């Protein structure tokens, strides 16, 4: 017979957060980028580029023909943010 020991983990009295709160409220501080392959598009594009802002949850999706034009899309998106 197997004996199991139970440990109390869920009865924590303090919740300690070490995240810096000032960085959580700055828009466009952290942006996630997804490259989605093999899409079916009307203009023979094969990839979709998805940008997601962590704070404001703003989504932007672009479609590109080649993977090599991804750097151009990132530069364009960064220039839009700087304005």
> How many strands in all?
3
* Count of discrete alpha- or pi-helical segments spanning 4 or more residues: 2
Low-confidence stretches: none
Sheet with the most strands: spatial strand order: 1-2-3
Report how far the terminal alpha carbons are from each other.
68 Å
Structural classification: alpha+beta
What is the arithmetic mean of pLDDT? 82
Describe the structure.
By secondary structure, the chain is of the alpha+beta class. The chain has one domain (21-82). The protein contains 2 helices and 3 strands. A hairpin with a 5-residue loop joins β2 and β3 (59-64). It is flat, with a radius of gyration of 21 Å. The chain starts with 20 loop residues before the first helix and ends with a helix. The model has no long low-confidence stretch (mean pLDDT 82).
Topology, element by element:
Elements: H1 21-24, E1 31-37, E2 47-53, E3 59-64, H2 70-82
Antiparallel strand pairs: 1-2, 2-3
Features:
83 residues; alpha+beta; three-stranded antiparallel β-sheet; flat
Brief synopsis:
The chain has helices at 21-24, 70-82; strands at 31-37, 47-53, 59-64. By secondary structure, it is an alpha+beta fold. The chain has one domain (21-82).
């Amino acid at each position: 017979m197997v004996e199991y020991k139970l440990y109390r983990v869920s009865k924590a009295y303090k919740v300690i957060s070490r995240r810096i709160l000032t960085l959580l409220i700055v828009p466009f501080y952290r942006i996630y980028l997804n490259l989605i392959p093999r899409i079916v598009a009307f203009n023979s594009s094969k990839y979709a580029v998805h940008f997601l802002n962590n704070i404001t949850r703003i989504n932007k999706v672009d479609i590109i023909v080649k993977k090599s034009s991804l750097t151009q899309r990132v530069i364009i998106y960064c220039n839009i943010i700087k304005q």
